[in-house]
Write a structure and sequence with these properties.
51 residues, mainly beta, two-stranded antiparallel ribbon
Length: 51
């Protein structure tokens, strides 16, 4: 749980299995990026690719 969620926005999308919490100072990323998971097994990492 986040202590203070007012500093975050939530990105939902058809390709997102779960909502992603993004810091509000990164809000410009929401509609201008691809967000995905890279890697395999326990080595998976969230990646953000600016368009």
């Amino acid at each position: 749980m986040l202590a203070n969620d007012t500093e975050f926005i939530i990105k939902n999308g058809s390709k997102c299995l779960v909502p992603i919490w993004i810091e509000k100072n990164l809000q410009y990323l929401v509609d201008n990026t691809k967000i995905d998971v890279a890697g395999w097994s326990t080595y998976r990492r969230l990646i953000v690719i600016p368009n």
